[in-house]
Amino acid sequence: MAAAPIVIDDADDPRIAEFRDIKERDLTGRQGRFIAEGTVVLRMLAVAHVNDGDFVAEKILLLRNRADGVSEILAQLPDDVPVFIAEAEVLDRIVGFHMHRGVLALGRRRVSATSLIDRLPETALVLVGAGISNHDNAGSMFRNAAAFRADGVFLDETSCDPLYRKALRVSVGSVLSVPYERGGTAEALLAQLAARDFAIWTLSPRGETDIRSIPPSGRMALVVGTEGEGLPQEILSRFRSARIPQSEGLDSLNVATATGIALFAMSSAAGRI
Amino acid sequence: MAAAPIVIDDADDPRIAEFRDIKERDLTGRQGRFIAEGTVVLRMLAVAHVNDGDFVAEKILLLRNRADGVSEILAQLPDDVPVFIAEAEVLDRIVGFHMHRGVLALGRRRVSATSLIDRLPETALVLVGAGISNHDNAGSMFRNAAAFRADGVFLDETSCDPLYRKALRVSVGSVLSVPYERGGTAEALLAQLAARDFAIWTLSPRGETDIRSIPPSGRMALVVGTEGEGLPQEILSRFRSARIPQSEGLDSLNVATATGIALFAMSSAAGRI
């Protein structure tokens, strides 16, 4: 049962302070809190919340005329999650820009007792990102991981937090559904995965194995680096590398698209799709 | 031989008027003129220009401290293409925002005497976009078409012009290297392609044929629709449809990524990559 909506008519109301100027600053890093934006992401957050997943909805802020449109989603949430509504003029002053979507939630990530690497199933496909600092690319990578049934995403400490508002939005909420962990160096992460019998495949335009010829194995990890630079040589020389066959040219595929194609090929090889 | 650079110290100088406020307005549609941004796109424009391709460089505008970095590219252009340079403060006033890249060109598309459909080789792979209005997606689709060696891109009249500054930038200049045509209805376009022996494959999450099982044929066309809505039912029911196998869920892959995967699969099937 959703809470009865509370009308906000003052942008300075402390009850909605977390939604202030969300374009200029990001809550990420403040005790795992984040802003979820749009109906699709709200729905994913509600699903995680009611299933005791890794995420909790703390409060909702809606444009008044959007409240009816999301009532079905809100009905799933318990009534201790407050729902605030505001007119467009007030909402725009709260968030600091014109907000035509008008659906916002404050969420929090729960700290998991066991690390993701120890929770992975016996047969698993994971995605590892090193230096993925672009929020769009991070979001798209989660979307692709969800589409091709990856069991988890690992991001090194130099990658951005996928709970950034834009990454989360671009992921169409997949950041809330695909288990992930972020932190540590890519080298340490890959050593841990290798020790747990993962076949590690780095992706590079100059990779040795055609992505269509990767042999299937029970546990597979795809490793992608930042656009432009790619993966550091230390990583490329330590693990097997795969390439997506394509035109020779100055610029390879966008990292998000390349990740999608590689996950498609690996998920195909493993018989997962 | 490049022209000797001309210093611009007044943002209102009529010689660089086309670069004024480029964020707010777009030249597209004005006799095929467009703004190319960044070193990579400038290089593609210079290549098209000197090879008598579909595009001509009309003038160049650079941040003073970027001029050395692109001198090799400019040296390819004839000296009747003027090169203007400006300090950061002047350049920012010209373009209307802070321009840290500092490499701009005014280009023009030449009108081709013969239509693209009549210039396609006997064995061909083409991409058809219907209702691709998002500039990012349009740009990414060209990048994917270039990576997987498509012979051409057709966009219907409801798709955006790929020469929009952002589409061109996201394409990393592929809009200037992959032949394309834009206009007409998708239905008319597909009828023309079918009449020229193209096997038409529409892409849809509910497509009948797994994209990995498309039979190769000499001439193949991949048809993609707008994100969200997808292709209209009239088109889906008239032609064969393909799907990318993926998780069931509310949101399918991003249209750019889906196009990349489908082109990868079709180009593989046809033995082109």
From TrEMBL, chains A, B:
InterPro entries given in the database record: Alpha/beta_knot_MTases, Ribosomal_eL30-like_sf, rRNA_Methyltransferase, SpoU_MeTrfase, tRNA_m1G_MTases_N
Secretion signal, residue range per the UniProt entry: none
Transmembrane segments: none
Cited Gene3D superfamilies: 3.30.1330.30, 3.40.1280.10
GO biological process: methylation; RNA processing
Keywords: Methyltransferase, Transferase
Residue span, tRNA/rRNA methyltransferase SpoU type domain: 125-264
GO MF annotation list: RNA binding; RNA methyltransferase activity
Keyword field contains Transferase: yes
Protein name: RNA methyltransferase
